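Lab notebook, bench 4. Still working through the backlog of constructs that have no structural model yet. Next entry is a single chain of 303 residues. Request: give me the structure tokens for it.
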Amino acid sequence: MTAIRNKRRMSVGDRIFHIVNYTVFILLGLICFYPFYYLVINTISNNRMVDLGMIMYLPQGIHFTNYVKVFEVDGMIRAIFISVSRTVLGTALPVIFTSIAGYLFSKEHMWHRKLLYRFTIITMYFSAGMIPVYMNMKLLHLMNSFWVYIIPGLLSVYNMVLVKTFMESLPAALEESAQIDGATYPQRFIHIVLPLAKPILATIALFGAVNQWNAYMDTLLYINDSELYTMQFLLYEYLNQASSIASSITANTDMSMIDQATQVSTTALRNTMTVITILPIIFVYPFIQRYYVQGVMIGAVKG
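Model written out:
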């Protein structure tokens, strides 16, 4: 009833404002959505028409041959496994390490807390540069190792600051009551702090997952073994060599068995590999989004 009354009380100016507001945001949403939609319809449409730029709004000659052929590219399945593995481990382990570090630094009676915290924060402002980092990875024997994807990113100082600030905003009485009941620091951290810190942990998990999934520079710099190539690195290489890859796929296909409209082309290969790379993050994001805004706002502002 209250909502109905408020609706009736809306003035003409309020109605105009809401109409303009919704119109603007719908248009902005369509502008953001269309490039991805355009990419998808071009991967499932007639490849000849795609090469000629004739597919703009609706798919034509729908087929899924491009996706089948991309997964037949040499090393693609292995690269997908490496990408998924580094994303899962490279997200879960940093969340664990970052949450522990943030919890420790949120305790005022931590041993040399201020000194250690300042040394940690300094790393946000100074970087050794690419060559020293490369030499460091080499001396640590991480070259051509899967762990070069995981170990360097185990602790993000920026994310740790977010977690620390969030945990400092939690009511101290919750831990104090558990402490009176005899709970140790690990017990209080696991059973009280972590459940309450889900928003900020989901936020840094999303940051980490996106970074790990999209990363390819570490493969370019530190990996020579093709067994450890990620899907993003293969995409980087194949986008630069799309013409030869498309020709290779065509040469290995019995042309008498397929329609010319589904013949893999350079444009179709690029579009398809880009969609395959983007889709996993798009599917994961809706499940984390409800925590995202809350985690960033609470973790970024102390009060």
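Notes after review: The chain has two domains: 11-73+241-300, 76-227. Residues 11-73+241-300 form one domain. Flag for follow-up if needed.
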